[in-house]
Specification:
Blueprint: H1 9-50, H2 53-94, H3 105-116
């Protein structure tokens, strides 16, 4: 017998929502990083021209925020990987590894005959 994966519509919709949310959040992180790079370049010019300590303080804070966004992007990828692994583990748990037939050998032959349309000889042979 073969194991067939049964996936409900709710599971498919849930997986689609998770995937869509992941892609949306990832796009937002990339957009924040791109705008942050532009702002950082402008702030570097302002700090150079003004030579004011506050401008350099703001610049260092912007650099820290950019590094934090990079860390969040990496955490986001790690969480998505863990989530996909958890889903795969759930699928494995749902799979039947060992089947046990409770009945006589003749009942088993009848069952197999219905499924395979061929009879299997289960009589023991003496090899003495």
């Amino acid at each position: 017998m073969t194991d067939k994966k049964i996936v409900s519509l709710k599971d498919k919709q849930r997986e689609k929502n998770i995937d869509d949310d992941y892609k949306y959040a990832r796009a937002n992180y990339y957009e924040l990083l791109e705008r942050g790079k532009e702002s950082l370049d402008l702030m570097i010019e302002v700090a150079r021209e003004s030579e004011h300590p506050r401008a350099f303080e703001v610049l260092s804070n912007m650099m820290k925020q950019m590094a934090d966004i990079n860390d969040k992007l990496m955490d986001h990828n790690k969480k998505e990987k863990e989530l996909s692994q958890a889903q795969k583990q759930e699928e494995v748990k749902k799979m039947t590894q060992n089947n046990i037939f409770l009945g006589s050998t003749s009942e088993l032959q009848k069952f197999l005959k219905k499924n395979n349309q061929e009879e299997i000889d289960v009589t023991p042979t003496n090899t003495e």
